[in-house]
Specification:
There is one protein chain. The chain is of the alpha/beta class and 335 residues long. The chain has two domains: 161 residues, D-Maltodextrin-Binding Protein, domain 2, CATH 3.40.190; 135 residues, Bacterial extracellular solute-binding protein, family 7 (D-Maltodextrin-Binding Protein, domain 2, 3-Layer(aba) Sandwich). The chain contains twelve helices and ten strands. Strands 1, 2, 3, 4, 5, 6, 7, 8, 9 and 10 form a ten-stranded mixed β-sheet that branches. The chain is globular, with a radius of gyration of 22 Å. Bound molecules: (2S)-2-hydroxybutanedioic acid. (2S)-2-hydroxybutanedioic acid binds next to loops.
Length: 335
């Protein structure tokens, strides 16, 4: 009996260790949003495709909701990780690379993109190599860009954000770790406050900040709209992600594995654009239907005023980003 019990116990353990042994490489993919968002869905699809196509030689473990790291910590962990068999991968928002790249700040310039078609034009162009240049020297290998969507502004107040600077005056806004976003809020008349994503719901609920800017999917999945009164459809900037992995790990992967993983990433990226387009419309509708926060559109005149008020941000960051690069991006987008 004892013998049989030991055998029964040993079988699953042996299977588990065979599975563990079967994986030559592990990728820990850390992100901060929910699994059912465009980034979460793309991460899960990528994990599935990699495991299938490498026949288990590469295992991808996905950690959503800041379970493993927040976005700033993950980049440090990735840079410092010297492992050739376990790679840390993440998809932080493009705005969160400010410590490592001046050029990527281009993505934060207010009113640069009218919509995600504009973004795709840039992301799919050779200019992307210039925008991500130098990251590998900092230990980060840029692999692809994933969409979330265009950003809207939300606020807890007795009126929506429309008139600037009046509606921003005396109000605090949570932003990501982007200096351009900070300057933009100041030019709109408000006070910026950088906070990790994980803290936003509580900060809004407790009145530490009055408002925030984000894509519909995040406003919905993290329930920001339940603690806000108004959402203004501003589409003033893009929220998207740069998928990165430790350069050391990536460069040491055998070429066949690297190609297979790249192929899976390409497919996950195509799917991500579809997930994001669905979430953009669907999550806006759910927020409107729930009736916690009222959604308002800016008029053309209001939008023009916002654009004009934030134009100095472009001048302020022109040299830091690179004047020539900005001009080439503008040319590509037909501005
Ligand atoms: C934020 O911090 O608001 C976003 O970058 C979170 C995310 O990953 O979408």
């Amino acid at each position: 009996m004892k013998m049989l019990f030991r055998t029964l116990l040993a079988v699953p353990l042996a299977l588990a260790s065979m599975q563990a042994m079967a994986a030559d490489y592990t990728i820990k993919l850390s992100h901060v949003v929910s699994a059912h968002t465009p980034k979460g869905q793309a991460a899960d699809l990528f994990a599935k495709l990699v495991e299938e196509r490498t026949k288990g030689r590469v295992k991808v473990e996905v950690f959503p909701n800041s379970q493993l790291y927040n976005d700033n910590k993950v980049l440090e962990a990735m840079r410092l990780s010297g492992s050739k068999t376990t790679g840390i991968m993440a998809a932080p928002s493009l705005s969160k690379f400010v410590k490592f790249s001046k050029t990527l700040q281009t993505f934060d310039l207010p009113f640069l993109f009218n919509n995600t078609d504009d973004v795709h034009k840039l992301v799919d162009s050779p200019l992307m190599t210039r925008l991500t240049k130098g990251l590998d020297k900092k230990g980060l290998r840029a692999l692809t860009v994933w969409d979330n969507g265009m950003k809207v502004f939300s606020i807890k107040a007795d009126k929506p954000l429309r008139n600037i600077p009046a509606d921003f005056t005396g109000k605090k806004f949570r932003i990501q770790s982007s200096n351009i976003a900070a300057s933009m809020i100041e030019h709109l008349g408000g006070t910026p406050q950088k906070l990790p994503f994980k803290e936003v719901y509580t900060a809004l609920g407790q009145g530490v900040v009055d408002g925030q800017e984000n894509a519909w999917s995040n406003v919905h999945s993290k329930k920001f709209y339940e603690v806000q009164d108004y959402i203004s459809v501003t589409n003033h900037a893009y929220l998207g992600y740069l998928v990165v992995v430790s350069d050391e790990f990536w460069s040491n992967l055998p070429a066949d594995i690297r190609n297979t993983v790249s192929g899976a990433l390409k497919e996950a990226t195509e799917a991500n654009r579809k997930f994001a387009a669905i979430a953009d419309k669907g999550d806006r509708k759910k927020i409107e239907d729930d009736k916690y926060a009222k959604v308002v559109e800016l008029t053309d005149a209001e939008r023009a005023a916002w654009r004009q008020a934030t134009a100095p941000v472009w001048t302020e960051f022109r040299d830091e980003i690179g004047a020539e690069l900005i001009d080439d991006v503008k040319k590509l987008l037909g501005r």
